[in-house]
Write a structure and sequence with these properties.
Largest sheet: 7 strands, mixed
Order of helices and strands: EHHEHEHEHEEEHEEEHHHHEEHEEHH
Radius of gyration: 21 Å
Number of strands: 14
CATH topology of the largest domain: Aspartate Aminotransferase, domain 2
Shape: globular
Low-confidence stretches: none
Distance between the termini: 43 Å
Number of domains: 2
Structural class: alpha/beta
Number of helices: 13
Helix content: 25-40%
CATH architecture of the largest domain: 3-Layer(aba) Sandwich
Length: about 400
Amino acid sequence: MSLASGRPYVAIPGPSVMPDRVLAAMQRPAPNIYTGAIVDLTQSILADLKRVANCTAHVALYICNGHGAWEAAIANMASRGDRILVCSTGHFGLGWADHARRMGLQVDLLDFGRQAPIDPARVREALAADREHSIRAVLMTQVDTATSLLNDVPAVRDAIDAAGHPALLAVDAIASLACEPVYFDAWGIDVLIAASQKGLMTPPGISFLWISEKALAASKDSDLATPYWDWKTRVAPRVFSHNFGGTSPTHHLYALREALDMIAEEGLEAIWARHRALARAVWSAFDAWSQDGDIALNVSNPAYRSHAVTAARIGDGGAERLRTWVEEKAGITLGIGLGMVEPGAPTQNDFLRVAHMGHVNAHMTLGMLATMEAGLQALHIPHGKGAVDAAAGAIADSLADRI
């Protein structure tokens, strides 16, 4: 027997839940792609993307996923053979480093593992040792989607400045924009990347780069920026199609416009508070489950946890068994573990991720946690009691704080 019939809930860290308003906005004929309303629509989107990132500099649109945005950032910041410093706290930090290496850059890797955030002191030490200032950029993720580690962007900026180093600061905010606070200008970010399918609640297929004046100037001598990836064309387009390197992604733009309207209606401060509250509910449930059996959050210190996604471990293959059960029996899809152990390791099925990003509310989160509780019971996976009560209490406390 299955109870999965009905509306499914895909609780993975991207693509996140797409609001009905966003989906409905796409249901229209294709527009004139040369002039008229689509031009005004795009200009409004560019302006609002700057507001979401608290940026007054430049923003460029790309028809690609986040991996494409990685390449766009690398191609414009550096030339073949240049040196960069990559700070990794999981699968996606290592992925960005791999892209840079395969594009012909020399990569200095600071790997902080899978359970600890970036240590700014080590960043400062690495840059101070670069007396010739050969490192062109420092790359970091604000939230690594695989480990759910939240990194301190201003602290890394301070480390660069304390070392007296001219390196650009590039930040992957794919899993954090519109979920966590992001202040491009105030934090001294030079390049910020994000994608449409997470906090921006839009189907995958568009990515964005926010670019400081310093980064724009540094890109003038890059030899990796091919015509499509060159951001200089996009930030100063001579014709409308230059915004996209060709035909505009019309229906994605309609969807994104609606999503940005929803973000403006709720307000960024309220969105950040909602994500904090829902994250605390998830953490409270896992804290209760972890009182018995082999269950644990990946990040032990709440200060270092993302408010958009939570990575966890359930031993003896329990994570994969629970993921399968809640999808087949209850219609909920949880995220797989990514890069926590080597492929084929005996513990590769011990990891999962729970997303609470974007268009998610209290009853969705509490229902998901209650369903996970049912799965733990049905599968006879040892776990502590009271998780749903604890999550409900966390929600009630969060709301009481705002009455």
